[in-house]
Every structure is written in structure tokens, then in C-alpha cells.
Amino acid sequence: MDAQSLDAAEVAERLRLPVEQAHKVRLLGDVPPAEPRLPSRAAAPELLRRLSVAPDDAAEILDGWPSAEWPAELRWLLERAVATVRADLGGADWLVPGPWLPRDRGPAWRHFYVYVYLALVEDALAYHARHGIPEAVSWATLADLGRNLAIDRRMNGEGWPVMLEWLTLHVRGGLYELGRLQYQRARPRIALDELDLHIPRSGPLTPQACDESLRWARDFFPRYFPQENYRYVTCGSWLLDPALAEYLPEDSNIVRFQRRFEPMPGEEEDADEEFVRFVYGTLTTPLDGLPTRTVLQRAGVAHLRAGRHWRNVTGRIALRP
Known about the structure:
By secondary structure, the protein is α+β, with helices and mostly antiparallel strands. The chain has two domains: 1-174, no CATH class; 192-321, Aminopeptidase. Helix content is 44%, strand content 10%. The chain has helices at 8-15, 19-27, 44-50, 55-63, 72-86, 107-110, 112-118, 121-130, 135-142, 144-154, 163-172, 207-224, 253-258, 272-280, 295-305; strands at 175-178, 181-184, 194-198, 232-237, 262-263, 269-270, 311-318. A hairpin with a 2-residue loop joins strand 1 and strand 2.
């Protein structure tokens, strides 16, 4: 069946989604379809390699590669999810491009939002080029796809759900990876003079690596986004929870990272799930089964066993005097 002959209600019915997710499909009914601009299946392996996608993940992605044999409802959804993200090129706020899809229906369903991402790589590179951003930064930023797919594989599918919104930042030009750290451009509803700092799972959080990344950010944004006047880098994370200093040595990378930030007043959110996801790579293992190989892992278990909670704490760093 031709995807264009379907309306949103028919697509929602064919997808057999829960009510809340079916509603998100219906909201896409007024979105004009967009050409996904995916590479050919033959050219896809090279693109996946450049995006640091591991061979096992690449094989699954290729198995479900969009084609004329795809169900019409998936083709309909792909065209509108791509259109939704492309319409906000240059945006830096969180964006939900479509409904959650059942992952157990096969690779086309499991990797649907990977195809959305891949269909927008060309747009992201063109946006970067218009701003003069070096290709090395572009590819390092976009390669976060491979990192997150690898995390999801290690977590047996528990690592991917948060990526539905997260990966739209990369392909809209809203986030950049500069060495060890990632920086999200200003969100108008939050603050126009602040970059949000994110810490990917990409190795030790050494002072040297953080110094280099922050120096890079101080130069990068005035150079490539001169109309945006950033004064601060802001981070909200369990990594800034002062309770960590009760367990970790003073010269640990995490404690030294915390000391960079000026604490900001505000409500501290529960971060137990984020802590467990990041530190242990699981969301289903009982507390008694969590590994305790590292000082941080032992600290996490001891803290939770004591009936305490990890908190997301917000702090900021001045980008200039």
C-alpha cells in the first residue's frame, strides 16, 4: 500500500500502539511528509562506520533498512518524524519526533529512530558547514549514535529509551562534542546565556581532559555562533551530588570535577535511576546483585542500602571573567 494513501488514524490503528503513543501518531497527521534522504543500503556501512556504530549494531540496522517492502505505516511515520526534526534545524530544545515503538517486532521497529537520525545526517553536516564548523567536530558529535547503540546493547535494550529526544539535538545542530564533554546550545525557555554541559560515557573524567574541553568551548561558540552570548556552562547531574565526596577520595576525578562548579539554588531531583544506569549499566538488576568492583560502584550500593538517594544537583562555571 502507498504510505500517502493512509491518514493518521489509520496509521495509529495499524501500528497497534498504546493509547498515549497512538495520540502522538495522530498529532503527526498535519505534518507534511519529507524525503528521508537516506543513503543507499550499499553506501550505509561506510556511514555507519563514520558514526562509530559497532559491527553487530550495523548488521541489525542493515537487516531492517527502509525499503519498499516496509509496512506502509512505518514509511508514513518515517517521513513525518524526519519532517518534524528537519523543521526545527538549528533548534536546541528537547524534541519528541514521534511515538515510542515496540522493539520486539524486528529490526525495522527496533532501529526506527536510527533511520530517522541517519536520514538527517546530511542536514546536520550542511548546517555545520554553513556555520564554518570543522568536519572533525561534526563527525565527533554525530558519532554519539554509535556510543549510545553500544550502551543499549550492553544493557540488553535498557539503554536506548532516553535517546528518542536526545539524538535530535545532534542532527539539528543543537549540541556539539568538544573533546571529553558535550555542550548544548541555549534553550530559550531556560536561559539565553547558558550552555548545558553533558558528560558522555567516553573514558576518565580527568582534569586535563576537562580543562581542554572547556578551553575549546570558550573559543568555539564565540567563533561559530557569534550572535549567541554565552556567559556560563551549566550542568545538572548526579555527578555534582556532594554526597559523592563522602565516599570518594579528594583527588578522585569526580570530586575534582565537582569543585569546578558554583552550586546553584533550586530543587534537587531524584537521580537514582540515572546513577544506576550510568554506573552499573542496568535498570533491572536487584541492589544485592549490582557489581562493586570500583570505588564508585561500592559507594553507590552503600548509599542506596542506607536508604539514601542520589540527587541531580545543578552548578555552573563562568566561561569568562
